[in-house]
Design goal:
mainly alpha, elongated
Amino acid sequence: MNMLSLKVLAAVKLSPSEDLPGTKQAQTVINGMAGIALIVCLGAIVIGGATWAVSSWSNNSQYASKGKTGAFLALGGAFVIAAGAALINWATGLGGAVK
């Protein structure tokens, strides 16, 4: 790359804007999808916990392990979904600090 193209690349700036048409509707759709995903995670936690409990009670260690794994994976998924906006804002701030 020559110096001119490096200067052009260095001059590029990013500033997210909410002025585009459809941005509000897209935000509404994403919020709805996040709500549905959290409900699915709650269901997975309940099913995983029930599988874990019943399998432990019946001395079935293989299914107890699968129920435990399912419950904790669903809990992790709910955390990522709920913290998604904060994680994106953190990464945006971190990337904006690079000079």
